[in-house]
Design a protein that fits this description.
The protein is of the alpha/beta class and 361 residues long. The protein is 35% helix and 12% strand. It has an eight-stranded mixed sheet, with helices on both faces. Helix 2 crosses helix 7, helix 6 crosses helix 10 and helix 10 packs across helix 11. The two termini are 36 Å apart.
Length: 361
Amino acid sequence: MRGLTVGGAQEIRARGARPAGRGWLKKSAVGLAVAALLPFGVSVVGAGFGSGVAQAAFNPAGMDFYVDSTMGPIKSRVFRAADGNTDRVVYLLDGMRARDDDSGWEIETAAAQTLMAANINVVMPVGGMSSFYADWASPSTFLGIPAGTLAGTGSGATEALAGGPGKTSAYMWETFLTQNLRDALRDRLGFNVTHNGVVGLSMSGSAALVLAAFYPSQFSYAASLSGALNMTMPGMRDAVRVAMLDAGGYNIDALAKAKDAKWQHLDPFTFAPKLKANNTRLFISAGSGLPSSADAINASTVEGMGIEAIALVGTKSFQARLSGLGDSNVTYDYPAVGVHNWKNWESELNRLTPDLSAHIG
């Protein structure tokens, strides 16, 4: 899994083209499955991504912060606010192909510098490939074969029988973020653990909303950038199955079985009433899928266009649901140009920072 790169073919998820209607989504089972794959970064072109990536790389201002959990010691990268406060805290969650060495946010963007300058403490959990930052029902295995039976090669389905995070033991990311990490930040760094913010992209866009919906005292602000916000739409489970296999060789049945109520817990479209009841401040974004002048016209950009287009469909669906509930405590941002890549997520992070700053702490 360490051989995977964030910002390459693994981690560019589209920032979409114009939303297509429901009729288009239902034209064929195959078309729907492929379309639904796209928000999660499954490569259907096979070309490497990377155009327009910020490549900020390792930031020496951050510190490694290890916390014990049922998954073993988990590293986060912590960046202190410029003014030294401990009240204003935001968690930045990684994408589908999260690496085990550092967060994509640090590798590919200057998000930490931006937020530190805004006097916000930044917490970047490291790891969680294909996890959806959820508590899984069991370790990821296939056909009852124990994890670690075969050595993986570092990518895709070849990792299915390899060991590693989420395979030797079950992923328990929701518990980690809302108990283990929360308590350690409070007890060891003195961080405020109420009225925090959480920002997610692509896979973690929905996870950010899960945290805000079910842990409102901890998270009063949540942002989804190009997230999959209608997880129970027809064909989505099969799409996620293929995406998880592609991103590290994970088995969706280890997360939850097909009929499990867990899917309602993971689906922002379903639990939208909780966000309204909590009065959570939200920032919801997805791009148009049209490339900017900085995006080279190549296979990567074309793939990114399609991926974001589907992210936009789910995001617009979620907006309609939330608006129907009368929830107005939300900012929607739909950039006129932008494909599914870190350059665009960094731009959206810059746009939301003043709003985040005004609603945490």
